[in-house]
Amino acid sequence: MPASEPIFRRTLEGKLKQLARSFPVVFLTGPRQSGKTTLCRLAFPRFAYRSLEDLDEREFARSDPRGFLARAAGARGVILDEVQRVPELLSYLQGVVDRPGSPPYVLTGSQRFPLWTGISQSLAGRAAILNLYGLSLAELGGRRPLDPARLDRAPARFAAPAIDRDRTLFSGLYPRIHARGLNPRDWLNGYVRTYVERDVRELLNVGDLEAFSRFIVLAAGQTAQLLNFSSLASDGGISHATARRWISVLEASGILVLVRSHHANVRKRVIKSPKLFFLDTGLVCFLLGVRSAEDLNGHPLHGAIFETFVVSELYKAFAHRGERPPLYFFRDRTGHEVDVVIELGRRRIAVEVKLTRTVRLEAFRGLDFYRALAGGGSGVLVYGGEETYRQGRHLVRSWAACS
Q1: Which domains, and CATH codes, for the chain?
Q2: Closest-CA residue to 309 (of 227, 244, 398, 235)
Q3: Reported pTM
Q4: Distance CA 294, CA 298 (A)
């Protein structure tokens, strides 16, 4: 990368190094342009590096996989970048890593589907899997990341970073945009075209890419809402089964996540449909046609985009520590709801998200209801302001302090 570009230190780096010392193979996956290559090369500067995006490397790996892997003899370690381009290589890698003295292999891939079969069959018990997403707000600002299990504990000192909330929502947190100071709409236009025209075609062999492009826009309109397959299928002019399959592709590609409802030890009848959340608000804004940060003010999905940001920050906070994000939501059939429930074994943190910069007492009703129903737990209100403070039994946490 050019010397003038900032280097974002990723929270996942420590876990990645730890697992590379313990496992013969570490597979780092995540959406395109989330920083996987940069992270691996920063974490392992002395490892041999092979990119299967390179046509010559890819042809070599396909035509002579044993010879391709044999070049690593004597290396301290090996990075195989974008390994989904030659998924059959995993079958040959098994024999290599089983030999005494084999160097550790770090694999990266932007698509999970072509790799899951190879990993589960060829590298079962040999590979650790990590997920890297876009930057967290803490990573962008070079701050020490928040332990998400301590979200309900007031920081000893916190000064909100000098960043604009809506501009952050509009720009999103893909590293390249911030490293090079790019116009988010220009960069995301190319990103979506590459994803749809290349990755989706390879994953699904979709003949009508225009229909899939419309589908992504429709899905973006459902962010922070209950997933409605019937609506997506009807509005997109596709079958219910196709809508399900395409949502699975977006999820496997790291574009969105589905957050399930929480019902453990809660006797009320709860909504069973998952909520859909995109993992980058800049991408949502682009897909919805938001042309500037100023246009968010008054936009009908402003609150949903803000909730998407908070949930994505919490999701990344766990994922970038190498943990499965234990995020749920609560909503019963009488309208009581809590935006996020963090399940921490015997302890739960209920999180409500409000775009407003002014916190009123009614904002805590959902938290109070859930705590009474669940028999305890702590409550956090993440809001659109800059201060972090306690109000009664709850912590009011700034949006800028949730990662």
Answers
A1: 13-131 (3.40.50.300), 137-401 (no CATH)
A2: 398
A3: 0.94
A4: 9
